[in-house]
Design goal:
272 residues; 17 strands
């Protein structure tokens, strides 16, 4: 123990020197092993790991919503989804008969549209121009001429005569076939189109010469607008309108105050 007490500093110093010597010997070996591991890892790819998909549905839905911005309808539409911010609805008092012969009944009705835009075409019918043989009389022949399904005009003609209605020439009797007292066929020429056609005792000549329309006006259900033809006039909401054209698909009316025209289409099926 006396030796240790005298030389303990040297003993401690020796132990420290031995540790340092061991570290000096072990450190190059550790560096060499680390370098070898680095070289091995640098020469190959890291093990593949599957990527977990990221959910972008919220962002995608937000972008899709931006492409179709929300639209606000402030006027118009189809009742009852009718927007009145810039187009207020009018309430109108209408007098109707609850039953035939009964007392009148007053009701209040919402009016979404007024004027020609509110017109409804209930039916459109063709009007015919007709030339029909009636009978033989002496050396001539009686025909019926009817324009636009209106009044029938009786006309007495000989061959080569020109038929006139109201002072206007309408057709010419060019010739006949069969016995003069009992013809089987007549040849006539329509003077408006120069068309040559035939008329027999059984089959008249007929073509569409115009149309007539039945209209209704929901804001005034008691207003009669039946059998309207080109040139007819009527009044809606204090304004006078004239029928300027009727086809098999629509009716066109014109305001007399400013000549504005409105076309009312027809579905092709008679409305109830």
């Amino acid at each position: 123990m006396e030796f240790i007490k005298r030389h303990y500093e040297k003993i401690i110093m020796s132990v420290v020197l031995l540790c340092l010597l061991g570290a000096a010997v072990w450190l190059p070996k550790m560096i060499s092993d680390a370098r070898e591991q680095i070289n091995q890892r640098a020469g190959g790819e890291p093990p593949a790991k599957p990527w977990k998909p990221v959910d972008f549905s919220v962002q995608s839905n937000a972008l899709a919503a931006l492409q179709t911005p929300f639209s606000v309808q402030l006027a118009g539409g189809i009742p009852p989804e009718y927007h009145n911010l810039f187009n207020p609805v009018t309430w109108k008092m209408i007098t109707t008969n609850a039953s035939p012969g009964g007392p009148p009944q007053v009701v209040y009705q919402k009016i979404y549209k007024e004027g020609p835009e509110a017109l409804v075409v209930k039916d459109i019918r063709p009007l015919y121009l007709t030339v029909a043989f009636d009978r033989t009389a002496g050396t001539g022949y009686y025909f019926f001429f009817q324009k636009m399904s209106g009044k029938k005009n009786a006309l007495y003609l000989h061959v080569k005569d020109v038929a006139k209605v109201g002072g206007q020439a309408v057709f010419t009797l060019l010739g006949i076939k069969g016995a003069p007292e009992n013809p089987t066929e007549f040849q006539v020429q329509m003077l408006d189109t120069q068309e040559i056609t035939t008329v027999t005792p059984q089959l008249p000549f007929q073509k569409i010469d115009g149309y007539a329309a039945d209209l209704s006006y929901p804001p005034e259900p008691n207003l009669s607008l039946k059998n309207k033809r080109v040139g007819d006039t009527f009044t809606l909401a204090g304004e006078t309108y004239k029928v300027v054209a009727i086809s098999k698909n629509d009716v066109r009316v014109q305001a007399t105050s400013n000549d504005k025209q409105t076309t009312i289409n027809w579905s092709g099926t008679p409305a109830p």
